[in-house]
Structure formats: C-alpha cells, structure tokens
From TrEMBL:
Keywords: Metal-binding, Zinc, Zinc-finger. This is ZINC ION BINDING PROTEIN. Residues 3-45 form the MYND-type domain. The keyword Phosphoprotein does not apply. It comes from Salix purpurea (Purple osier willow). The keyword Translocase does not apply. GO terms for molecular function: zinc ion binding.
Length: 320
C-alpha cells in the first residue's frame, strides 16, 4: 500500500505502515504526511470506515487457499509469504505471475512497462496444467447465473485450489461491472462493447489474462482503451489484437495449437474479437477525443485511489 500523503511536498520516509486509526483503510509513511492529508481524508474517513467493516464479507472466498492468499496480500511486510504462496504452486516469478509479489520492485515494473513487447506478453501463459486454468472455450455457454467466484469456477470446470482468480479478477471485474451497470444484456444484442479502463498498472504486464473476456462476452466485438500515466508515452496509441486465451503447460492441449484462435467462430457461429489500445496520460486529458471516436459503454478504474489522490478529481468532473 502506498502512502496516502505521497507527493505532498516532502518525500516519503519509508513504507506506509501507519494506518488511519479510525477507518484503517489508508496508510502513511509518517505523522507529518498523515497530518497534511487530513483535510482531504476527513471527508472520506467515515465512509471508508463503514466499508472496512465489511472486509470479512469481501474476503469470504470459496477457494481452498483463501485464508493464505488474503493474509499474504494484506500484510505488506510479510514479503516472503506471497512468494511462498506462489512458489508452492510453481509459478513464482514466472510470466504473468512475476508482478504478484514484492520481488519485482516498482523501478523494475516501470522499466518493464517502458520496454514491454505486447506480442511476447500475449504469449505468456498460465504456467499451470490445463486442468487448473481456463485455456480454451468453455464446455457450455455462459449464463446470467454466473454471479460469484464459485459460479465462475464451476462454469469453467476449474478446481477451487487453482490460483487463477488472482489474475482473473481483472477481466471478471469488467464482466461484473457490465452486469451492475445494465450493459451486459444490451452488449449481447448489439455485439459490441467499448470499455474505458482507467489507471492500468501491473495488468499491462498481464494482458493475456484478458483473453478470458472472449468467453465472458461470446460473439461480441470488444474494444478496451487502457488510459493512464503508467503507460509510457512511446507506447501511446499502440493497438493490440487479442484473439485467444492464455495457454496452459500441456503440450498436447488445444490451446497450444494455432487452430484454437478459430474456435470462437467454430463454436459460436459468430466472431469474437478483442482490441486493446494504449493511451498515455490522465483520462480528463484524453476523454473528449476518445469519446468522439467511440463513446464507451463502460468506464472502469480498478486501481483508483480516489480518496487518496487529488489527480482523480478532474477525471470525475469529466465523467459528470
């Protein structure tokens, strides 16, 4: 967790381990940063306190590894715990899992973003056997009954000890948001979905996981605009085509043959395709030009620290 007072005149003095005593939702590196941020935080503190009271409900997952995973993700200082979790499953520092622990520092992440090869990243697989990951078309079409992780794992025939949810929360959040916003049914009818995805960070290095949207929105032409300051300026405007699922380790699995790319047409009778476009900068700086080209059905910001970062305020105004 970053210091909520980061960028407020003085540099952070270390890790953000000093949590707000009331809400516990934000943390600071020092007393001075906590005091300087109070005028902004006090307006959100009570709301965040109420949300934090639901933390146990939000952490009530069906996975067999739930307690281990949530504990290691919440306690930043236990760096080795998350590494141990990944190592036990043979995925530590491999492919898309590389940025799921503290072994890859922020400087290395920035360097990776600046030099990433989208074609290579799309070749990154799950580094898991085929029975543990969604690497090919589902056995049955998706239904509106898929409303929880348990529903999803059962639909995709994935055992509850599989860790893929740690990466699939990116595409599943888009799917869930589409349902909440009432967009899903209209998308199925129009066969088009445009998403403005704000503030992407490490998911830019896990793009292959977004291939699961091909199963979640069958027969739909999906276009996602990734917009945020973490995208290097030299990558601005880059367009990426994603037409298959992240593959598994099984050499004889269909996902490791090029013919899998044609499965969407063969199985549904309709072509499902996805394009991802990178946009560098803040959303409020790019919104007007993007909306002129294609108005979004959904605007989503999974990494937004709206209460902590004032740079989000112009973006909120742009959307209102």
């Amino acid at each position: 967790m970053e210091c909520a007072g980061k960028g407020r005149g003085t540099r952070c003095m270390g890790s953000a381990r000093r949590r707000c005593g009331r809400c516990g939702a934000v943390a600071y590196c020092s007393v001075s940063h906590q005091m300087s941020h109070w005028n902004e935080h006090k307006e959100e503190c009570e709301r965040l306190e109420q949300q934090m009271k639901r933390a146990d409900v939000l952490n009530d997952f069906p996975f067999t590894f739930s307690q281990e995973a949530t504990a290691t993700s919440q306690v930043c200082e236990k760096q080795g715990s998350r590494c141990s979790f990944l190592s036990k499953r043979g995925i530590h520092q491999l492919g898309m899992w590389m940025h799921e622990c503290c072994c890859t520092h922020s400087e290395e992440s920035s360097s990776s973003l600046a030099s990433f090869d989208s074609s290579r990243l799309l070749d990154d697989g799950w580094n898991l056997s085929g029975d543990l990951c969604p690497c090919h078309d589902p056995i049955s079409p998706i239904s509106e009954c898929v409303s929880s992780w348990l529903d999803y794992y059962e639909w995709r025939c994935i055992p509850l000890h599989s860790p893929v949810a740690l990466l699939l929360h990116w595409p599943l959040t888009i799917y869930h948001a589409a349902h909440i916003a009432g967009v899903w049914s209209s998308t199925v009818e129009t066969r088009k979905l445009c998403v403005h995805y704000l503030g992407p960070e490490k998911e830019l290095l896990q793009l292959a996981a977004f291939g699961e949207l091909l199963a979640l929105f069958p027969g739909v032409q999906i276009h996602i605009e990734f917009i945020g300051p973490a995208i290097p300026r030299q990558r601005d405007g880059e367009k990426i085509s994603l037409c298959s699922y992240a593959h598994c380790l099984d050499a004889d699995c269909i996902c490791n043959f090029s013919s899998e790319n044609l499965s969407q047409i063969a199985n549904t009778g309709k072509s499902t395709s996805m394009t991802l476009q990178l946009r560098s900068g803040f959303y409020h700086e790019r919104y007007r030009s993007l909306a002129e080209d294609l108005c979004p059905h959904l605007v989503i910001s999974p990494n937004a620290g709206i209460a902590a970062y004032p740079s989000w305020l112009p973006t909120i105004h742009a959307r209102n």
